[in-house]
Amino acid sequence: MDNQFVFVNDLATSAQVPPDGILSRTLQNDERSKVILFGFAPGQELSAHHAPYPATIQFVEGEASLLLGTERKEVSAGAFAYMTPNLEHGIKAKTKVVMLLTMVKGVAPQK
Known about the structure:
mainly beta, four-stranded antiparallel beta sheet, 4% helix
């Protein structure tokens, strides 16, 4: 592995937030995990979906409505959620939002 670490000094200023839309940037990706930094313009939505991996979401900036299964949470900077595999989830930004998503991928069993 050439890069032994990934360092981002300030997630909030590293995210690109378009005037209208959602932009994402993969910060790290290997066989065990994937870390993605998202920037949402106000009013943008990532509709309800499922993912095969457990994941965490950390809100770095802004306010949003977060769907976790059948529950809706109103979140702001500093909020954190852990999601089990296949949990339905979605996000609607109320303001400019910067969010960090970490997916934990399956690891092959050791022999």
